[in-house]
């Protein structure tokens, strides 16, 4: 039992030694620590666990797991969860390996979208296909794992595109159709979402933000995301999703890109300023949203009459 708080380095060492020891009871396991670039250029340490005779190696983001430890989950319980995930993937018999990715027919139904900030991800975008939209880049990923609120994906690279002989446009159409089949769009008043979050850190941060800007609490804000609430900002590119909302309210609306996981919709009123809303988005990005999850500092406007999304400020 640990009486004092482990530093991040001590925690990673403890997890690595325990996971490796338990898995080696079944068969030889290799645990490797590397640093990777995540969304918006954020660097993160990952732990990759590959067992003998297994093609697929589970990947764990150690900073995220360390945050769970700081919130009160014991290192032993976290190590046990990681071992359980490894064994479950073994039981599922996943047959995903390098050769599987070489054939488009294998991956066609697993291609999904992810909307990211174009400028913040400019370095990573040089190595992968994407569609430029507003100040965003619509990237493509292969879904290789889905379990409750957790998914595992592989970024589609330029090399994969050479294997597949498909265009970015074809990839976009395929991915958009898959996303709408897998995870339907969800639209709800922001008050409902905050109620669902209960006492979580996001709810606390939102309450603190409302104290600074009480006028925000009276706005008719709606949250738009997907069923699993992961990379939910991608619903902006679902067919007719925004058009339906505009038809329901009978007017233009602003889109506030609150994070990569969701956006906020706000019907346009006479006294609203897009530039004031941009200040709100910027404040939320700075105070509430993590660097990795920021989508954009801009505010968009959906034009009801011409069914078009533009940058308003």
Written overview of the protein:
This is DUF5688 family protein. InterPro entries: DUF5688. This protein folds into 3 domains: 8-92; 100-182, no CATH class; 185-311, no CATH class. 37% of the residues lie in helices and 26% in strands. The protein contains 11 helices and 13 strands. It has a 6-stranded antiparallel beta sheet with strand order 8-9-11-10-12-13. Strands 4, 5, 6 and 7 form a 4-stranded antiparallel beta sheet that branches. Helix 1 (8-23) crosses helix 3.
Task: Please sum up the structure shown.
The protein has 313 residues and is α+β, with helices and mostly antiparallel strands. The protein has 11 helices and 13 strands.
Chart the SSEs and their pairings.
Elements: H1 8-23, E1 29-37, E2 43-51, E3 59-61, H2 62-70, H3 75-92, H4 104-107, E4 111-117, H5 122-125, E5 130-133, E6 136-147, E7 150-155, H6 158-164, H7 168-182, E8 185-189, H8 190-197, H9 201-212, E9 222-226, H10 241-249, E10 253-259, E11 262-267, H11 274-287, E12 300-303, E13 308-311
Antiparallel strand pairs: 1-2, 2-3, 4-6, 5-6, 6-7, 8-9, 9-11, 10-11, 10-12, 12-13
């Amino acid at each position: 039992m640990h009486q004092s708080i482990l530093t991040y380095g001590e925690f990673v060492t403890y997890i690595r030694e325990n996971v490796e020891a338990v898995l080696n009871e079944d068969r030889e396991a290799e645990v490797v620590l590397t640093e990777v670039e995540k969304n918006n250029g954020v660097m993160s340490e990952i732990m990759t666990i590959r067992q003998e005779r297994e093609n697929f190696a589970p990947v764990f983001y150690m900073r995220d797991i360390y945050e769970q430890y700081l919130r009160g989950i014991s290192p032993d319980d976290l190590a046990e969860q990681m071992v359980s995930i490894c064994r479950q993937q073994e039981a599922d018999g996943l047959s995903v390996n390098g050769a599987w990715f070489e054939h488009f027919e294998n991956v066609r139904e697993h291609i999904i979208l992810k909307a990211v900030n174009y400028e913040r991800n400019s370095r990573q975008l040089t190595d992968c296909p994407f569609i430029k939209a507003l100040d965003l880049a619509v990237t493509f990923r292969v879904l290789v794992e889905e379990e409750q609120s957790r998914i595992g994906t592989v970024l589609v690279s330029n090399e994969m595109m050479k294997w597949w002989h498909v265009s970015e446009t074809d990839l976009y159409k395929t991915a958009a159709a898959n996303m709408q089949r897998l995870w339907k769009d969800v639209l709800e008043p922001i008050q409902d979402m905050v109620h669902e979050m209960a006492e979580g850190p996001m709810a606390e941060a939102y309450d603190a933000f409302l104290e600074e800007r009480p006028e925000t609490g009276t706005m008719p804000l709606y949250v738009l995301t997907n069923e699993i609430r992961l990379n939910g900002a991608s619903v902006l590119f679902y067919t007719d999703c925004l058009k339906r909302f505009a038809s329901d309210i009978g007017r233009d609306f602003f889109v506030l890109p609150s994070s990569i996981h969701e956006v906020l919709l706000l019907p346009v009123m006479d006294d609203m300023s897009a530039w004031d809303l941009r200040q709100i988005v910027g404040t939320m990005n700075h105070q509430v949203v993590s660097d990795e999850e920021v989508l954009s500092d801009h505010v968009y406007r959906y034009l009801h009459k011409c069914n078009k999304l533009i940058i308003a400020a």
